[in-house]
Amino acid sequence: MLNKVCVVLFLCLLYTSIQAQPSPYLNVIEKVSSDSNPNLVLLRTTGLQGSAIALKTFVGDQPMSKLRNRRFVEQQLNPGSYTLKYQWYGKKAKKKARAISVNLKPDEATYILFFLESRLFTTKVHAVQITADTATRFLQDLK
Questions:
Q1: 108: which DSSP letter?
Q2: How far is residue 72's CA from residue 27's CA, in Å, rounded to a whole number?
Q3: Radius of gyration for the chain, computed over Cα atoms and rounded to the nearest angstrom
Q4: Which helix (H) or strand (E) is 25 found in, with range?
Q5: 3 state SS of 16
Q6: This prediction's pTM
Q7: What are the pLDDT tens digits along the chain (143 aa)?
Q8: ∠62-22-51 over CA atoms, to 5°?
């Protein structure tokens, strides 16, 4: 009986580890409309883990957006340096919220890609600044 339980647990761990590998080339987003002229575009990749929870983003301590699975958000901010914080829950930015520094330039869009790293009992969110060419590939399938 103990051997069967061990085999089932091993298969569950194996399945979880296989599903947890994020693909960097997932289809994720739609193209940015040229008339809105955003200078910050946030993209969230697909994934089974965390798909029902919206990712909350903050500029400093001010709430900015809720980013759902397979979605993108366009924001117009003044040029300058910002600290973009992101977390799963809460209406206010927490002290332990993860952050990424962003330098916004006039007449140039900055693309931030959020992707999930699934572990055995937790899911971590990572943010990476990507180029416009890479973002165009992701922007084809998002809403």
A1: B
A2: 12
A3: 17
A4: none
A5: helix
A6: 0.70
A7: 777 766 666 665 545 554 444 433 333 333 333 444 568 999 988 766 666 778 899 998 889 888 888 888 988 888 899 999 999 888 888 888 899 999 998 888 999 999 888 777 777 888 999 988 888 887 876 75
A8: 50
